[in-house]
């Protein structure tokens, strides 16, 4: 029973990180989480320790952990690996996506468009995470999928920054639509190119924001 509860809490925290429900620097206190979820501290501590071991969280004094702050160098390193692995996963997924999976992807895109119109950050990030996870989940390589998700655990909290630029929202879904069209046509190379363009465009936006953070910190 304890192991099942620990797994449930781990998955809940994991989902929150993948979907950007936590932000860099957020502190997660064991007692607060246990109280919020109506459980004892032990399974919460075990779930958090698993995420610390995966590099998604880092330990702090006084029995708390935090979402690590994002640095330019760290983001760049993760981004370079994501480009290689996620492109590989997309190309491998072509041919494995049935009509049900394509319908899920299309639904994600529709809800992302709606979230953009409403400027609902969390709704967009949730659907964006679902879109990519369904797509990569069809790659047929569990090792590749697990590695990609481990990287997403580290960058997911930073995706909140995408909505800090007023004119950015107009392009948030363009590359998903290009990838979906290619997937429906069975064109793996075009689908990979669209996802790599997605990563390149938004990766550069986030790197620019990190540069701005650094400049402001130095001037302050």
TrEMBL record:
Matching PROSITE patterns: HTH_GNTR (PS50949)
Domain HTH gntR-type: 3-70
Keywords carried by this UniProt record: DNA-binding, Transcription, Transcription regulation
Gene Ontology MF term list: DNA binding; DNA-binding transcription factor activity
SMART domains, per database record: FCD, HTH_GNTR
Superkingdom as given in the UniProt entry: Bacteria
Protein's name in the database: Predicted regulator PutR for proline utilization
Annotated organism of origin: Metapseudomonas furukawaii
């Amino acid at each position: 029973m304890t192991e099942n509860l620990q797994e449930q809490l781990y998955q809940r925290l994991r989902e929150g990180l993948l979907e950007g429900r936590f932000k860099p620097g957020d502190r997660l206190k064991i007692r607060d989480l246990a109280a919020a979820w109506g459980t004892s501290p032990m399974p919460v501590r075990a779930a958090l320790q698993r995420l610390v071991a995966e590099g998604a969280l880092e330990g702090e004094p006084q029995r708390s952990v935090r979402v690590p702050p994002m640095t330019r160098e760290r983001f760049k390193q993760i981004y370079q690996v994501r480009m290689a692995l996620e492109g590989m996963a997309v190309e491998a997924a072509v041919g494995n996506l049935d009509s049900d999976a394509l319908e899920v992807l299309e639904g994600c895109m529709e809800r992302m468009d709606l979230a953009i119109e409403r400027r609902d950050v969390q709704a967009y990030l949730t659907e964006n995470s679902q879109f990519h996870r369904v797509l990569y989940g069809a790659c047929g390589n569990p090792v590749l999928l697990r590695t990609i998700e481990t990287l997403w655990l580290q960058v997911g909290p930073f995706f909140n920054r995408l909505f800090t630029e007023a004119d950015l929202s107009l392009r948030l879904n363009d590359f998903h639509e290009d990838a979906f069209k290619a997937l429906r046509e069975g064109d793996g190379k075009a689908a990979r190119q669209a996802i790599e363009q997605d990563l390149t465009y938004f990766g550069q936006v986030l790197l620019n924001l990190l540069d701005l953070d650094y400049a402001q910190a130095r001037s302050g």
